[in-house]
Amino acid sequence: MKNKLNWxxxxxxxxxxLIAWLRxxxxxxxxxxxxxxxxxxxxxFSGFYVLAYILRSLRWxxxxxxxxxxxxxxxxxxxxxxxxxxxxxxxxxxxLVKSIILKKTHNIPISASLPSVFIDKITDLFPILLIMILxxxxxxxxxxxxxxxxxxxxxxxxxxxVFLFFAVNHRSKxxxxxHFFLNIIPSNFRKKFYDFFENFVDGMAIMRGxxxxxxxxxxxxxxxxxxEAIYIFAVFRAFGSQIxxxxxxxxxxxxxxxxxxxxxxxxxxxxxxxxxxxFGFGLQxxxxxxxxxxxxxxxxxxxxxxxxxxxSLLALNLSPKExxxxxxx
Length: 329
Fold this sequence. Notes:
The protein is mostly helical. It has helices at residues 2-24, 27-35, 42-64, 72-88, 93-106, 110-123, 128-137, 144-169, 171-182, 187-204, 211-238, 245-257, 270-282, 287-315, 320-328. 78% of the residues lie in helices and 0% in strands.
């Protein structure tokens, strides 16, 4: 019942975003951009999009290394398997799937590996600081909606960083914080949640004393952001936009940060609307050109995610059906 509710709520959210986007687009202008589309080098530049995922899989490999030293290929296959599930299910189930696979293939307890996934997702919020740096450099006038989005993402980043600090360095305080929020759960189930989250906090100690690794994973995160921005820059140029690389870096980094929030299946609707909101209204790129760019980019990146996700599951000798069954149990 809960899974169905998540699906329906995700689809409903996507429909709202899609309707809002459709009301913005002038279809005659939209189609004209495809007639003038320059596909030269675009497939080559899409390799930078894949490179970003390779870098993020290496980042997770570094975080998890005290618990399990993955081979580079294995970390990529695990990461892309999670990405595929995330793309299909609007509740970030792919993050849990990575821990489920490790439990199945190497008998690593979920409570031991899941903190590494959580830390990995916190690191994805780190580029919000890059956004703050870029705002005065690209002389962009942020509308109220973008200001709210940036502020919300920054507050989420700060909240996660504070929790990570306490979990790594002050276990008892972190547990008290969790207990405070878990009081809303009925007392009959509270004990099981207490036990799980106490083990989870213990697992967060995986980063204690690893100063060099902190710098390394943040550096890799920035490389991934720069790599993705190169691909998006090429997409905009293919449609004739003169947008600069720093503007693309700002816009797509902000777009990436919104993925921490709930999204519809395959991000249909939310991708289109957020691109137009950020690039069209925020960075003053033609809204129909932006719509054409996001439509093409969404299609191409979907092919990459589905293709690499399926290949990754095959490499790990797993099937999507098996993961769904395990998730339910």
